[in-house]
From TrEMBL:
Stated name of the protein: DUF456 domain-containing protein
PANTHER family registered for this protein in UniProt: DUF456 DOMAIN-CONTAINING PROTEIN (PTHR39165:SF1), IG HYPOTHETICAL 17883 (PTHR39165)
Residues that span the membrane, as ranges: 7-38, 50-75, 87-116, 136-159
Entry-linked InterPro entries: DUF456
Keywords on record: Membrane, Transmembrane, Transmembrane helix
Organism: Candidatus Kerfeldbacteria bacterium CG_4_10_14_0_8_um_filter_42_10
Pfam families attached to this UniProt entry: DUF456
Length: 162
């Protein structure tokens, strides 16, 4: 093993680590970093172990996580009774929450936003709180799915390379 390969493996591990952290801290695009680490490795090794086909599969997995993450949040909110205003305010709450309170704001912001949106739409406190909890359930569901897909991508990478 030459030093260039060791550096390449190190860089790939850094991207994978940032990716896994990004799944837990959605400020970073987690699965994207795992995908990017794989693409970089593939490009620098002539796409031998990590072939172009694997990159296409990883791209599909990345797109899947983007869609699932979006839909899980909406589904969770709707399943627990949130209306359009509640969903809209949960997105606003997420943006404000991330900026003002980081990770805690990312979790609490959408809940508060959904509650405010539901109260403004005329629902009672109980219904509004239920919708707020739905946004949390959707967020956690999406995060779990992204984490599992990220681990699967890393597992495939390890299987192909080592």
């Amino acid at each position: 093993m030459d030093w260039k390969y060791i550096i390449l493996i190190g860089v790939t591990i850094i991207f994978f680590t940032i990716g896994l952290m990004g799944i837990a801290l959605p400020i970073l695009p987690g699965v994207f970093f795992i995908w990017l680490g794989s693409v970089i490795y593939g490009a620098f090794t002539g796409f031998k172990e990590i072939s172009f086909t694997v990159i296409v599969v990883f791209t599909a997995m990345l797109l899947f996580t983007i869609v699932v993450d979006y839909l899980a949040n909406i589904y969770g909110a709707k399943k627990f009774g949130a209306g359009k205003l509640g969903i809209f305010f949960s997105v606003i709450g997420m943006m404000i929450g991330v900026v003002t309170a980081g990770l805690i704001g990312l979790i609490v912001g959408p809940i508060i936003g959904a509650i405010i949106g539901e109260l403004l739409s005329g629902k009672n406190h109980r219904q509004a709180f239920k919708a707020g909890i739905g946004t949390l359930v959707g967020f956690l569901s999406g995060t779990i799915i992204k984490f599992l897909v990220g681990l699967l991508m890393i597992g495939i990478f390890i299987w192909r390379v080592f």
